[in-house]
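[step 3/7] fold_predict: job queued, chain A
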Amino acid sequence: MDGGNYVQAAQVEVSTENTTELVPIPHEPKMDHGAPILQRKLTPAERLYWEQYNTTTYFTMESPHKGSLWVHVLTLFVGFIFIYPITLVLNTVKSKWYIPVLTVYDALIVVSLVSLKVFSISAPNMYPNNAYGKMSWILLFATITHYCLAVLHCASQWISGEWIMNDTPELNQPFIPLEDLDLEAGSGSPSPSTLIDADNNNNTKNISNGVNGNKNSHDHGNAVPASPETEVYKDSAQSHSSLARDGILSSVFNHPRVKAFAEKFAPVISFLFSLINLPMLGYLFTYSITGVATGNLLGQGVRVFNLLAHFIKGGVFFTLGIFSLARYCGCLSKSGLAWNKCVIFKNQVNHNSLWYRWMPQGMFTMEFYESFLIFFYGSTNVFLEHLAGAGGAWEAKDLQHVSIAFMYIGAGLCGLITEKILSDWRFHQVLSNTNINPAAIHAGSPGYSPNPFPVFTIFWTGILMSQHKQASQISTVIHEQWGYMLSYGSFFRLLTFILLMLVPNKNLAPSRPFTELITSFCLIAGGAIFMQSTDQVVEALEYRGLTSMFTLNVNVGCVALLMAWEMVLLIWKDRLQRK
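[step 4/7] structure written:
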C-alpha cells in the first residue's frame, strides 16, 4: 500500500470511529462562549498578554497565617453588615442595649484588625504603599474614639433620665387625638408632630387609645417615674439579662469621673458623637471596598485612576439607592424627606439661625440637595477626568468624559433654579389639603418637588454610559447593564412624581410610593455593577471564562438580600419607637 492510500484509509478509519462515538445534540457549545480566555482564538499579542497574566493575590497566596486573613474578612463583614447597623437602630430609639451591642461590635473590629496584623506580618508586601494599612489605623482610632463618645453621650442621657422617659409609655406618646387639636385659622400653632389631617382621624384615635390603654395599665393614678438607680429593680417581670445590663450601665454611668465629665461637656460630647456615629457606617463601606481592591491587588500604578472612577461613581449611586429605600421606609420624615408633607411653624423657628433665614417658603427638598450635589460633582469632575494622562495632550476620550461633566454642571444649575421657581407651588400644596393659618407657617413642603433635572441627569448618565463602547465585549455589556439600571430607576422616579401629584398627601405620614422600591433596587444594583465594571475586574472575569451574566445574576440576588435586611432594620426601628 502506497503512502497516499495509507493516509486515506486512516482518515476513513478515524472518521468511522468518531462517528460511532458521536452523541446527537441540537447545538454544540461554542468554544468562545464561557471558556477561559486562553482557550479562545487570540492574536499573538493578546496571547502574550494573557499568558503573562498573574492571578496571585493575597487571597490565593500561601501563608502560614492565611486563616487570620479570613478571620479579618469574616469579623469585618459581620460587624459592618449586621452589628453596626443594629447599633444605629438601638441608638435612634435610645435603647439601653445600645452600649452592650456596641461593645460587641467594637470587640469584633479589634479582633478583625489584630487578625489583619497577624496575617500581614507573615505575608510578603505585594502592594507597596497601599491605602488599606493606613485606613486600618484610622479605623482603630475612630472605633476607640466613637466608643468613648458613645459611653459619655449615653451617660448624659442616663443622668438626665432621658432613657427612663423613653421607657415610660405615657411620656412617649406618639400621637395626640384630633379632638384635642384645633387647626382652624387663628387657633395657634401646634407642633408638626401633632398636625394630622382629619382624614386620618380614625387611625389616630385607634393608635392613641392603644397608647392610653397601655398607660392606664401601668399608671394607677398619678404615678411618677422612678429614679435611674431604683427603676431597674422595680419591675419583677424584667429578665435577668436586663437586670444585669442595667446594673453594669449604672455602675459605669454613675462613676464619679464619667458622671462629672458627661455633665460638664454634654453638649460638646453629643455634637461630636452625632458627627461620627452615622458617618462611621460610610467609612466602613469605604474601608471594605478598599480592602477588596487591596486584597486582589487592584489599582496599582496608573490603573488606580480607572479603579477610583468606577468605585467612587458607582459608590455614589449605590449609596443613593440605600438612602432612597430608607426614605421609602419613613426615615427623615420630620424633614419632609420621606415623601411626606412637612410644616415648620414660626413659633418653632430660631430667627437667629442662618439655616431658617435661608430656607425658602417651600423648604429644602431632596431634589434641591440632589441638584446641588450634581452641580458640585460636575464642577470638580472637569479637573479629574484628565488625571490618568496628566501632563499630556487632551484626547477625545478626555473631552467625551468632560462633556458629561458639563451636563452635570448645567443640569445641576437648572435643578437649583427650578427649586427656586417651585418654592411657592410647594408651599401652596401644603395649604390646599390642611386647615392651617398660613400666617402661622414659616415654611412647608408636600415632601417632593416635581423637578425633573436630578432624574434627567441620572437617566442620561445611564444612557450615555450604556453606549460607551469598551475594549472587550464583556466590558461593553457590563456597562450596558448598569447604564440601563440607572435609566430604569429614573423612569420609576418620574412615576413617583406623577403618583404624588395625582394623589396628594393628606397628612404628615410617609406616603411610601411603591415605585420607589423599584427605583431603589435599580440604583443599588446599578451602582454595584458600576463599581465592578473597572478594567481589572473585567479582566479577572474574562481570564476565568465568566460572562457578563455572572455580574448581573450575582448582583441582583445580593441586592435583593441587602434591601430585605435594610427594610427589616427600619421596620424594627419603627416598632421599637412605637413601643
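[step 5/7] annotate
Strands lie at 342-345, 441-445.
Confidence is low (pLDDT under 50) at residues 6-17, 165-237.
exit 0
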